[in-house]
Write a structure and sequence with these properties.
Elements: H1 6-19, H2 21-24, H3 31-38, H4 49-73
Length: about 70
């Protein structure tokens, strides 16, 4: 990780104050952009409770199948 000297830190701070990036950041302005941004915090479905429950159900079926195959092949 980079270590800034006090002089570098002061110079960068002055540059950022002149640049004012917080004034350039406007976010979405169109309705479509706002609708898209509204979903930014939504988690994808792969970790949803329903999906996890379905995966557990499938794993249990697979486990039973493996046990059945082991019993029949002995």
């Amino acid at each position: 990780m980079r270590h800034w000297t006090p002089e570098e830190r002061a110079r960068q701070s002055a540059l950022i104050r002149n640049w004012k990036p917080w004034e350039q950041s406007t976010g979405p302005t169109s309705e479509a952009g706002k609708a898209t941004a509204a979903g930014n915090a939504m988690k994808h479905g792969i970790r949803s409770a329903e999906w996890v429950a379905e995966q557990r159900r499938i794993n249990a079926i697979m486990r039973e199948f493996r046990e059945l195959v082991e019993k029949t092949t002995k």
